[in-house]
């Protein structure tokens, strides 16, 4: 059964289409369209706004007003129109004069209108405009009215983005003084420089055929497209270059999603309601988006990205435009996407990717994890980039400072080429350092370990010739798995690492999940403050079986070698003792069963909760080692969410309060003769590691990709001198001591880049 709104919409859209085909003048066409819409909605006036530059709403056209009730340009969130654009939700107001958000401007000189019905014009779930109709009488809008206007808005998306309207939009912006931007600022998700030809990632197909009368034909089209898509995905996954491990698990999860029956059923139901297969796919996505986008659950939000990815892929199969990108010949490409699933990255030849720009990207997004592992600079949060960049344009990505240059000048290109060449040269030099000892100028040996999580990180164990693994984030294989890995599966992961490390030390951190690291198969129950909520050791002490199984897996994977176990987020001594006791019990159990146990077991903890700083005298006598998680320690000390881009750079670990805290820890560790290292990001950043050396730290665990840089700094520093210098900084009241430390490094020839 066709819904009443769809039935009504069919007639209106037919009229709009006819008019659109028979009229050449764009401006006239827009007014005529709004006239049809006004009459069809039995309203007196209508207006249509479009989004320019990803930032503003410009009045595109209006009909029926003696003067417009709005300014010609609005911000997102400004007035009712701005509110609709921001919330991506329709609004029905029977009396606009009582509506708090209604903004009256000087243009409005008559109180002609009482009611307003507005709908966002969405494309791929992004607001590209707003359509609103006005009634002079107070009007109670029904659900059918809302659905009708939304359906018309869906059609308008096609019109607004047609080449002819895009041109018109540009001329409109120009005449109103809006310039196209050439250097855009974003947030870096991965460092590096890249320059190449823009490949706008499968700019999503516009759904032009919204309705279909022949349902059985649409069902058949859907079935064929879905089957083909899944067959191709199966083939693609079988040939993946990524090898075994976490990435494949992520991609597998994605593939399972593509085969999800509930999703398919929803699309079928939409076809039964009168929509074309394409519109049915879009509607299924929008429904899901409406349900999940408000959730604070990061995992659910990530799922939306996956669903967008699968929906786009299916749309491309429905349109027959599912050819691979292999016909793009350029040797160096920059991929630009609104959002992207990890599987889509596999459509490209990795060797050619020089950068990835995501309009809506977050660091926990799966595609960002994969891109980082592949060493591709990644930028995100650049409003409007997806619509701004055209296929084939030159683009330069600066992943260090977070800039994108569109059509860079010759000078900028030259500058980038130099940066890229410098980086390559530098990487070669760093690689040569791997055979040299990590020893300072005044002869101090520094322990250099790496942090691992992804299987791709394992390669760094050999290439860097590091002393071992200072932090194995065991939650990463858990996060990428579809179900809780059992003991055998865990043993396989851990054993692979142990064998790769041979006799080198490996510190296994027990499961550190919760907050932003969520397991897909667990419900976390929507905590108000997840970063300080039920997470990490708190979970594994409450769900003791998980901890016990993990310890058993560590013991088995050690195959009789020395074993290091570290507990994260320890907040008081009781927790540490409790966790330690669990290890003791597991060892006893293994012994009782006559199984092989490690030659020695060292048990330590992460120092990342400030309360522990005040219990070091109690805890350290019980610990074999400690490692400082500076990421969390800084987050808790400064009460500053480490994942919030708004707070980026607001507080600095290179300031007296934080450095004094770090000093307290190393001094106590020395007093109790407890091995102490740093495994947070400070140990991957040369200038910050320099400060830590100045505080007395001598062991670091950094990311594999930062290893060369850190070693180079270590080999150029004089420990005794920098200790003297840092001592003087500890009393400073400056918010950041970074400039002082950088100046010191320059003056003393210390390599910090
Ligand atoms: C830290 O908090 O510094 C740390 C190393 O742990 P993670 O980043 O995994 O929370
Ligand atoms: Mg941490």
Structure in words:
With 753 residues, the chain is of the alpha/beta class. The protein folds into four domains: 4-176, 2-Layer Sandwich (Beta-Lactamase), CATH 3.30.450.40; 183-203 and 325-409, Glucose Oxidase, domain 1 (3-Layer(bba) Sandwich), CATH 3.50.30; 215-319, PtsI, HPr-binding domain (Enzyme I, Chain A, domain 2); 438-747, Phosphoenolpyruvate-binding domains (TIM Barrel). Helix content is 45%, strand content 16%. The chain contains 27 helices and 22 strands. Strands 7-14-13-9-10-11-12-8 form an eight-stranded mixed sheet. An eight-stranded parallel sheet has the order 21-20-19-18-17-16-15-22. Helix 24 crosses helix 26 and helix 24 packs across helix 27. The protein is elongated and about 85 Å long. Phosphoenolpyruvate binds at residues 471, 473, 512, 608, 629-632, 679-680.
Top-tier CATH class of the largest domain = Alpha Beta
- Look at the structure and give the mean pLDDT: 84
CATH topology of the largest domain: TIM Barrel
**What's the arrangement of strands in the largest beta sheet?**
7-14-13-9-10-11-12-8
How much beta, percentage-wise? 15-25%
């Amino acid at each position: 059964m066709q819904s009443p709104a769809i039935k009504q919409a069919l007639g209106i859209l037919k009229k709009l289409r006819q008019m659109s085909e028979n009229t050449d003048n764009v401006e006239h066409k827009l007014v005529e369209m709004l006239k049809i819409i006004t009459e069809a909605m039995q309203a007196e006036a209508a207006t249509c706004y479009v989004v320019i530059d990803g930032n503003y709403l410009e009045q595109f056209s209006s009909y029926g007003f003696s003067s417009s009730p709005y300014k010609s340009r609005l911000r997102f969130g400004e007035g009712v129109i701005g509110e609709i654009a921001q919330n991506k939700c329709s609004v029905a107001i029977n009396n606009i004069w009582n509506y708090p958000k209604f903004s009256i401007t000087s243009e409005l000189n008559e109180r002609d209108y009482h009611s307003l019905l507005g709908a966002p014009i969405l494309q791929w779930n992004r607001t590209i405009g707003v359509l609103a109709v006005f009634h002079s009488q107070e009007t109670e809008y029904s659900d059918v009215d809302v659905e009708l206007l939304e359906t018309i808005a869906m059609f308008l998306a096609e019109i607004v983005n047609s080449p002819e309207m895009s041109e018109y939009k540009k001329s409109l912006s120009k005449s109103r003084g809006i310039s196209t931007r050439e250097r855009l600022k974003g947030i870096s998700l991965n460092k590096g420089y890249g320059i190449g030809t823009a490949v706008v990632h499968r700019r999503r197909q516009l759904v032009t055929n919204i309705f279909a009368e022949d349902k059985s034909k649409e069902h058949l089209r859907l079935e064929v497209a879905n089957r083909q898509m899944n067959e191709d995905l199966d083939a693609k996954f079988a040939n993946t270059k990524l090898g075994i491990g976490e990435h494949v698990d992520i991609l597998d999860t994605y593939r399972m999603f593509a085969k999800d029956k509930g999703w398919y059923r929803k699309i079928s139901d939409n076809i039964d309601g009168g929509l074309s297969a394409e519109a049915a796919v879009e509607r299924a996505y929008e429904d899901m988006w409406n349900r999940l986008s408000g959730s604070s659950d990061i995992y659910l939000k990530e799922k939306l990205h996956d669903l967008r990815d699968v929906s786009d892929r299916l749309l491309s199969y429905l349109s027959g435009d599912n050819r691979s990108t292999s016909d793009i010949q350029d040797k160096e490409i920059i991929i630009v996407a609104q959002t992207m699933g990890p599987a889509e990255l596999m459509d490209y030849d990795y060797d050619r990717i020089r950068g990835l720009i995501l309009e809506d990207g977050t660091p926990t997004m799966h595609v960002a994890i994969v891109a980082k592992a592949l060493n591709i600079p990644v930028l995100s949060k650049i409003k409007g980039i997806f619509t701004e960049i055209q296929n084939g344009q030159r683009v330069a990505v600066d992943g260090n400072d977070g800039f994108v240059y569109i059509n860079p000048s010759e000078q900028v290109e030259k500058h980038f080429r130099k940066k890229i060449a410098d980086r390559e040269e530098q990487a070669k030099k760093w690689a040569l350092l791997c055979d040299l000892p990590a020893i300072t100028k005044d002869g101090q040996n520094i322990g250099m370990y790496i942090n691992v999580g992804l299987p791709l990180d394992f390669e760094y164990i050999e290439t860097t010739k590091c002393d071992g693994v200072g932090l194995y984030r065991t939650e990463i294989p858990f996060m990428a798995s579809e179900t809780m890995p059992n003991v055998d599966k865990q043993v396989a992961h851990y054993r692979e690492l142990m064998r790769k490390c041979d006799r080198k030390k490996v510190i296994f951190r027990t499961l550190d999940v919760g907050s932003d690291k969520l397991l897909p198969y667990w419900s976390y129950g929507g905590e108000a403050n997840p970063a300080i909520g039920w997470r990490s050791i708190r979970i594994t002490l409450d769900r003791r079986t998980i901890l016990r199984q993990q310890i058993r897996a560590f013991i088995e994977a050690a195959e009789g070698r020395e074993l290091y176990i570290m507990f994260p987020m320890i907040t008081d001594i009781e927790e540490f003792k409790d966790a330690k006791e669990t290890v003791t019990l597991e060892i006893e159990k293994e012994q009782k069963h006559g199984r092989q146990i490690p030659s020695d077991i060292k048990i330590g903890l992460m120092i990342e909760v400030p309360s522990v700083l005040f219990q070091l005298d109690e805890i350290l006598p019980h610990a074999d080692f400690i490692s400082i998680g500076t990421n969390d320690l800084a987050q808790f000390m400064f009460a500053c969410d480490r994942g919030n881009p708004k707070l980026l750079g607001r507080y600095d670990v290179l300031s007296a309060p934080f450095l004094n805290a770090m000093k307290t820890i190393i001094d106590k560790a020395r007093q109790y003769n407890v091995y102490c290292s740093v495994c947070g990001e400070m140990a991957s950043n040369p200038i910050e590691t320099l400060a830590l050396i100045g505080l007395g730290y001598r062991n670091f665990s950094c990311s594999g990709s930062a290893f060369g840089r850190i070693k180079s700094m270590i080999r150029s520093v004089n420990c005794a001198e920098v200790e003297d210098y840092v001592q003087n900084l500890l009393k400073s009241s400056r918010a950041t001591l970074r400039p002082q430390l950088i100046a010191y490094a320059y003056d003393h020839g210390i390599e910090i880049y």
